[in-house]
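Risk register update: the risk of archive-format incompatibility is retired. Evidence:
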Amino acid sequence: MENVHLINNEEVNEVVKEVREMRNRLSAEFGHDRSRLYAHYQKIEKELRKSGKYKFAEPPKEEPEPPKSANVEAAD
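Archived output:
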């Protein structure tokens, strides 16, 4: 495993701990309600898009078609 040294790295662990604490505080701010939190993130996204400072990838306009199987018989 190449990144095994990161698992025990105290500095990385502190950053992860800080991110989790921030995420928990933000979640608590919205009563741990995923719908309210999602609405908050949508509002922020709208403001960031409006600012023109950032580029966003647009979602595809259509749902991709599922791949067609060459074998149409069902398996037993």
